[in-house]
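User: My collaborator sent over this chain with a note saying "see what the structure looks like." That's all I know about it. Can you take a look?
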Amino acid sequence: MTTRRCDTCTRLIARDQGTAPLWDAIYRADFWDVAHSCNTSLAGWLVLIARRHIETIAELTQPEALELGLLLKRVSHAVQAATGCVKTYVVQFAEADEHPHVHFHIVPRMADQPRERCGPHVFAHLGVAEHERVDEATMNELARRIRAILEANQGLTED
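Assistant: Without extra context I'll predict from the sequence alone. Here is the result:
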């Protein structure tokens, strides 16, 4: 583990203090937080974030790993229900200099998504200019819907 700056940890502190915006504090589980990506042009692009600073999946404890598996399914279901997407992509790198913290991208794959934006090319939606990003009102509305779905299914391990 390195000692470089971690913007993900800064956002985690805001969630802990209750000062994060709705889109950045959609849902909190024991070991993971759910937030909407703030720099995407694709509505419903969520991030599942470890609640402690780790930089590799190998550092997960067994309880963190077990909760992760359940949340990947639950959050994917919630994204499908809230956006109408046909499926979700799940990706984990934690390579950005400012985000070395383990986090998983849960990305909606829309039925009408152009082929040149499918699969790994979906990342063309990330890191876009401010004027291309999903606006805060849209992120907050999706956050409300996704939170309601996750809270309604809280504690359920099977559908």
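A starting point for your reply to your collaborator: The longest strand covers residues 103-109.
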